[in-house]
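User: Can you fold this complex?
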Amino acid sequence: MLTRELIWPNSIVVVGASNNISKPGGKLLKNLIDNHFAGQLMAVNPNEEQVQGIPSWPSVDELPPVELAVLAIPARFCPEVAEILASRKGTKGFIVISAGFSEESEEGRKLEDQLVAVANKYKASLIGPNCIGIITPAHASVFTTPVPKLHQMGCDFISSSGATAVFIMESGIPKGLHFASVFSVGNSAQVGVEDVLEFMDDVFDPETSTRVKLLYIESITNPDKLLKHARSLIRKGCRIAAIKAGSSQAGSRAASSHTGAMASSDAAVEALFRKAGIVRCYGREELTTVANVFMCKEMKGKRMAIITHAGGPAVMLTDALEAGGLKIPKIEDSPQKQALKEKLFPGSSVENPIDFLATGNAEQLGAIIDACDRDFKEVNGMAVIYGSPGLFPVGDVYEVLNKKMHTCKKPIYPILPSVLNVKDDVAHFIQAGNVTFPDEVLLGRALSRVYNTPKPHEDRIYLEGVDIPEVRRIIDHAKDGYQSPEVVHRLFDAAGIPRVQERVAQTKEEALAFAEELGFPLVMKVIGPVHKTDVGGVVLNVRSAETVASEFKRLMAIPETTAVLMAEMASGIELFIGAKYEDRFGHIILCGMGGILVEVLKDVTSGLAPLTLCEASSMIKNLKSYQLIKGYRGQEGVNQRRFAEIIVRLSSLLRFATEIKEMDINPLLGKGDKIVAVDARIRIEK
Amino acid sequence: MLTRELIWPNSIVVVGASNNISKPGGKLLKNLIDNHFAGQLMAVNPNEEQVQGIPSWPSVDELPPVELAVLAIPARFCPEVAEILASRKGTKGFIVISAGFSEESEEGRKLEDQLVAVANKYKASLIGPNCIGIITPAHASVFTTPVPKLHQMGCDFISSSGATAVFIMESGIPKGLHFASVFSVGNSAQVGVEDVLEFMDDVFDPETSTRVKLLYIESITNPDKLLKHARSLIRKGCRIAAIKAGSSQAGSRAASSHTGAMASSDAAVEALFRKAGIVRCYGREELTTVANVFMCKEMKGKRMAIITHAGGPAVMLTDALEAGGLKIPKIEDSPQKQALKEKLFPGSSVENPIDFLATGNAEQLGAIIDACDRDFKEVNGMAVIYGSPGLFPVGDVYEVLNKKMHTCKKPIYPILPSVLNVKDDVAHFIQAGNVTFPDEVLLGRALSRVYNTPKPHEDRIYLEGVDIPEVRRIIDHAKDGYQSPEVVHRLFDAAGIPRVQERVAQTKEEALAFAEELGFPLVMKVIGPVHKTDVGGVVLNVRSAETVASEFKRLMAIPETTAVLMAEMASGIELFIGAKYEDRFGHIILCGMGGILVEVLKDVTSGLAPLTLCEASSMIKNLKSYQLIKGYRGQEGVNQRRFAEIIVRLSSLLRFATEIKEMDINPLLGKGDKIVAVDARIRIEK
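Assistant: Here's the predicted assembly.
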């Protein structure tokens, strides 16, 4: 719920405005003035007629109507002031920079709830509390610096943390990063990161909207909303990078103590970002470097030319890019390559990296870039490394670079390492509107992160042969806890997940009858104990009625055993599918190969339900053990399409059965087209 | 061979000195003057009586005696000039900054060889050619900027690449990194990175020498020398970080085209660095961040306190540190913790991270640091995060930090993110001699790199029961190519590597006789085909003479088969040991579990021969499949000490048999104390 009045207000009042610009209420007003808010600006301060030259009222009661209010007053006064403004002055936007709310105490939480109630009642937007404010093209309502000069095609930046927002801007600005807007959502009482993103999606205009969004998130409150709008924006041509802090256990503890919010499980975040197409970053420098990559033209492919006047950085960049899966192809021989070589000094190399030597000049750089852009089809983008040993300025070189950044069709990533020797030339290059990458390896890693983040897949749920009403009937009748094999079988049958034929024998006579029905060889397993193998509760390859009888007796004597499961003995490669329900995110699905590969080597990949066939296939392909699934050294593999379909069917089943909190299919046995679930555990919690 | 005259000359001549400081010969002289070389400074320039106020001679012939000469003249003149200086002026140090030598052409290589011959003949040191020069406390003989003001306890920095040396200094200086010396070795014609390190090892003085060394290496010419002196320096208390560029295949191509040197295989570099205790870095920013970590006191342990006035960066740092294996332990309850809490504002947290809020002040920071240093035994070091939203300066806080950096026993890592808002305060903090870390995650990763680099192990070769003369006899008599089982067995017996009993049968009669000798069950395998299993050339669990006879016939009919190997059938966990000879480095030894774990999942660890027991044990422990080796779910594991000993015995064997270029023991079978080699391939190339 972001109102026009919040983004494009005609009038703003700063409640708690001050002449002291070391105070938030003073600095915020100063920022509004310095950044030329064009509408009516007012202040509320009980002791002044004017604050910083702006007309001031002693209290909000006397104010004329005002569209946006910034509250810089103690928390306990905020709800009442907001009520007056919303009810009597028509205010539809609130930015509450005051702290002392839910992040501090239970009492503060109540005040925050009251604020939200006021905003909701009057359909007003509420940003904060406990935030630094927002910067839109209309107004800079923040109490911090720097206040970046906004650029329409800069990045939209939304942050859960005010201080971190400041530090991220301080990391980006010196590298030439521009901003189109900044939103610090603080405690996200009414408007969270997801809501701002939704707003950006709703108002997206392909002609005028920026295509880069940066997020700093401490807690994902509404994963569905984040997924929906991130995916939608990316499909519209946007690129999104985000930090979700709190990926480690201790980090989550720190995140919780900071925002008072429960941290989400990191695997779920990982899966969500991948599904949405969000480039995940882990630090400020990384985020702003990825942002600068986004500010360059998009690279259509993974083959880079490295253009350099110094060998070392080119080698390090090559290493970083190749480690990330990108390629530095050799430039193929051609008349154009020969012509370029003739323009360079003897000893230059027009292989790749293209090294035009320490003495290489501006004109030569122009020729190399043109050749890469027009002639060398084998490259999709260029990194240009040009520093200075400090003998003379390099402004002419950077001017060529500046021009080519605008005219070339392929992206150019400028690496300008000489932040001391040609400080002024670098500053001038940035002032011309360009980004720079001071460190080639940080660029290489950022490019790799971007390259390795898949575009979002289609989001249609696969339902062929999945009987949702039947799934619901089974779930609705199930009791909490681990389910009996019968329930598991019915669920699998309802979702079209193939399984081995099984029977549950309570008596020796039943066991013998089932053996006859299923045929030999058979498997017999205890029902009851959790780790069946550890207690000797699994018998494979049972081939006679006598063995059925003797083993039944032995198995029933194992503690906790309530019955014996009889099953046809399937064969093939052991596969694994697991799922875990994460609060708010839904089910994380894992797949891999069974046995030690999942238990010891943890070779699993994950995705967020519901999965598409394409997503499930990519999960399978990303397994380290993929080669075994394809078939290895004469052993028949499994049909991957079929394995993917089973994963997808399970994910569709789970989408309609959120009461299933945990489940494993371990193993499925697969040989060619035949893949069957052999054993499964499902835990329901309503 | 680094002479006193190179490092501490009483007189220097710049040959090719110029009044134009845009020229290397002009800038170098200027740097010598500006940095106050205290000895006699001279110039050679055919057209001037004085250059930049320094007396000049028309040619070297007329010069008085001079200890160090810097040559900034065309390559073709250098050998002759050097000869005159060395033979007639007593010059014992040469720094050749001219290019146009081996890096450019075959002709240049000859000039370079002549230069080296001159230097060697007169026992003079030669730095370069094709370098930027060196900076020692006595003289700044470089033609580039920046010329850092040297600090005795800054870092010694040695670089293969001049431009990269400049860019690394430009990366480090703004973060407060100090240098004690800088060596750019260029083409390393006589003196390479290893030789400078040797010199530093030889002159190391525990009272006065700096303990931090940084290396940028494009090619490791003498791995043994690098290993020896890096290890020696680290044992003396030094810390070394290095970039070895060219880790990827394409990167190596780039490195080769740059220096004209063959790139070393990256696995060997990795193993060498680990063995020496060198912290490996991959980029400039990473190297200078690790260097700044080294500039702080050494952390004795892995448990960090994070002290912050802002939540976000603390969470991201926690994530980065935990991902790297470090710990952020909760601060235990104690009267000291309670007392500290009372000094902080309400809402502060004295768990860990210790968050003293946006309003936290200098006095509180001092109290927190003191408590962490003195009272909180559960932490070994502190990261302090303190930026500014731009409301007021924070000089008082940084002054406290500055004082505590010097007085505390535990290391403090200062993270000052507000590079714009409190730029002057940060600059002042750096001017006081401190380092800073602008980005907490880059610090976290650097600390992790340092923490995860083991200290060097002892370097004694394990020889108990390894019969070196016998090994040499076998090798000397062996032909090139893959060896017969007999040769393999004799080598293993000589090194004390246990193996299954085997016999080679050429006829059915022999096969039957051996079966009787070895006893059943037996394994029979073809000799000849390389992938024995793929051609159906392995028969397990042979239990009768009839089977021996029939399988012998079948196996001999398989193409390329020359005989059949008969072996006792061992059982247990499949293990793997492999080795590969890398030119100049020696043997890289790999270990892991056999079968798919090595072939598909590539779960191997590596080390450089000769290995110690301790190194081999750590290779085993670092396997992903380590849990299986220990024993898993009721299956007996293997005695790790015994496995490590076999790895060490193999590495000792190889140390004396460099003719072995490749070998695999695959599998070894292990059960408890019994580990035996079942199959092995050894390729010799003399």
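Residues 256-264 of chain A have pLDDT under 50 and may be disordered. The first strand of chain A starts at residue 11 and ends at 15.
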